[in-house]
Amino acid sequence: TFSLQTSQVIVNEIGLDNKTKRLPPSNVGGVMGGEKYVYGNVFFKFAVDKHSLFGGDEELAQKSAANEIRAMNAVIESKLAHVHITLTALFYILGQCIIATALIPIKGSSTLRYGSADAAQTIRRKGPIIALAHQLALSLHLKPHFVVERSTQRRVLMELCADIEGHLGTD
């Protein structure tokens, strides 16, 4: 109920100036996913098209959030050992959509081993997680492909999408 109640506060404060909100958005980076909030040990993504990634279509932003949950379910169904996702819930409140995710023990880019946290500006492929990514791609019937790292223009072979983040937790 904590995540649901917090999500209700976020939705109820639509249209308020950030300075007057009880729970203002957090500056945690990233463009995809909409407005981001951190409260308690939960990370919230309010599915709005804040950066016009969907041409201002809020319904498409909400569909993207729902697809994130479907992708997590596919990872769970792969039943691969050592591949974990966070406890996550999707709430629809008054026609708005919010994803609530348990915070995990990571430290930004220092724990990132696979993928990109900055829209493919830099791409990581480091350590045993590469084998896990390969196994997951096989179970999802995905073909490896090249992605261009924007900062260096080098081609990087990726088994999964480039904007995935595979971290080695600090716990």
Structure description:
- Helices cover 25% and strands 23% of the residues.
- It contains 3 helices and 9 strands, in the order αββαββββαβββ.
- The model has no long low-confidence stretch (mean pLDDT 90).
- The protein has helices at 2-12, 58-78, 129-139; strands spanning 35-39, 42-46, 88-93, 96-102, 112-115, 124-125, 145-148, 155-158, 165-167.
- With 171 residues, it is an alpha+beta fold.
- Strand 3 and strand 4 form a beta hairpin.
- A 4-stranded antiparallel β-sheet has the order 1-2-4-3, with helices on both faces. It has a 3-stranded antiparallel β-sheet with strand order 6-5-9, covered by helices on one side.
End-to-end distance: 26 Å
Largest sheet: 4 strands, antiparallel
What form results from the Cα inertia axes? globular
Indicate the mean pLDDT: 90
Secondary-structure element pattern, one letter each:
HEEHEEEEHEEE
Task: Set out the fold topology.
Blueprint: H1 2-12, E1 35-39, E2 42-46, H2 58-78, E3 88-93, E4 96-102, E5 112-115, E6 124-125, H3 129-139, E7 145-148, E8 155-158, E9 165-167
Antiparallel strand pairs: 1-2, 2-4, 3-4, 5-6, 5-9, 7-8
Question: Can you give keywords for this protein?
Answer:
171 residues; alpha+beta; 4-stranded antiparallel beta sheet; 3-stranded antiparallel beta sheet; 3 helices; 9 strands; globular
Describe what is shown at a glance:
With about 170 residues, the protein is an alpha+beta fold.
